[in-house]
Amino acid sequence: MAERERRSERALRRGAGSARGGARIEQRRLRNPFPPIRILSDDQVEAIHGAALRILKEIGVRVLHDGARSLFRAAGAEVDDGGRMVRLDGDLIAGLLAQAPPTLTLKGGSPERAVRVGGDAVAFGTVGGPPHASDLKGGRRPGTLEDFKNLMRLGQSFDVIHLLNPAVEPLDVPPRTRHLDLTLYQLLLSDKVPFVFCRGAQAVADCLEMVRVGRGLTHEAFRDTPCAYTVVNTNSPLQIDALMAQGIVDFALAGQLVIVTPFTLAGAMAPISLAGALAQQHAEAMAGIALAQAVRPGAPVAYGAFTSNVDMKSGAPAFGTPEYVKAAFASGQLARRLNLPWRSSNVNASNAPDAQAAYESQMSLWGAVMGGANLVMHGAGWLEGGLTASFEKFVIDVEMLQMFAALFTPLTVNEAELALDAVREAGPGGHYFATAHTLERYEHAFYAPLLSDWRNFGQWTEYGAKDAAARAHEIAFRTLEAFEPPPVDPGVREELEAFAARRRKEGGAAVDG
Question: Alpha carbon of 442 to those of 434, 437, 439, 447: distances in Å?
């Protein structure tokens, strides 16, 4: 095997975090050493925050869940049940949000899988929720349970991924029992932090019970130990539907993390001006987070941001745009104004794992990472504006995430690193390939890519002239062939499978209640 192939295999092994030959590679715990970019002045942050408070007090939020409105009323909000409107003043919002924890830790299936949320910590998740899957050989297709399992295997296999997200909808599984398979295979194929969709109280209860069993906790300990997370999207503009409100209530009662994320597209579901879209996003996020605190003071929450713009020619969502990045920077400042963890995303609007997908995702990641995001959702695999989970894009994204992880490594400056002896040894007009300093360090001196091909044109042609998507396809399916699941206690496995089988036999759960 040529040296290039050997280096590629070494990079794949370093990137992979699944158990191979009994050995486990510890998950990377990432800290962002860079100060977040401040696109807004302090006065501008306060202006947007003040506008959001005016929205909540003067206009209000429509809440379609009767119980949630009752909780708001008990907390001191003005509630109009006829119009299903809730209005909250600034003091009430401030008091409720002050109860939310600024940091928390999500328990994984093993100690090294714990994920810190908040501060300078950064965690990346897989793509979540597309109805389609795609790869270069199989093409674009409705998602299947096997696609879902394979994407969970990929999520487990790379140590730069910290959080699972149901990467594709398995449309070959009935909706009433789909939540059981989504949760079961997250727990059996990975020991990373799982995701639970808010699809009704019974479905959430089923999933959280499975997570509790999988993590070996009593009911009381589970309520005090965040082990799973969800994302609640408000129905922008200014509405929280019954399923999402129920999800906030359920997760707050269970002590599990809920990320309240308005889906505010400037020009469609929010004002066309970024300042106006951000004010609406901020109002909706504060309303959802306030509900969680009204349910259970101290409930784990995060501020989610998903403000982007639409293509004004077609009305289609656009991602990875300059406006998206600006909104991300500003959202980080607004989340820190509330002293809350902040969620952003790695998104793009491309229909193929091509240059557009890469540069739009890179823009999105710069907005998230340099904006100070703690949680980056859809970190690997998002394509087609979120309608497709791509196996090739998953690997392309892992390469980008690993490069950011390498970027976070501090630059060391000391006598050895300054390398004056190497400068003397090479001398004027010399070279450094054979200096003692280089020979001691060359194997680990630089980031070794998982995907990038650094060969010259002749060598690249000799080895098949494969572009990045073709190489990513090979890496994805080579990783799946080598996959070994994490160990699961046989008794836990039996209990999980029996629970899922029983609930399937009972008919599962309706997605609307």
Answer: 10, 9, 6, 11
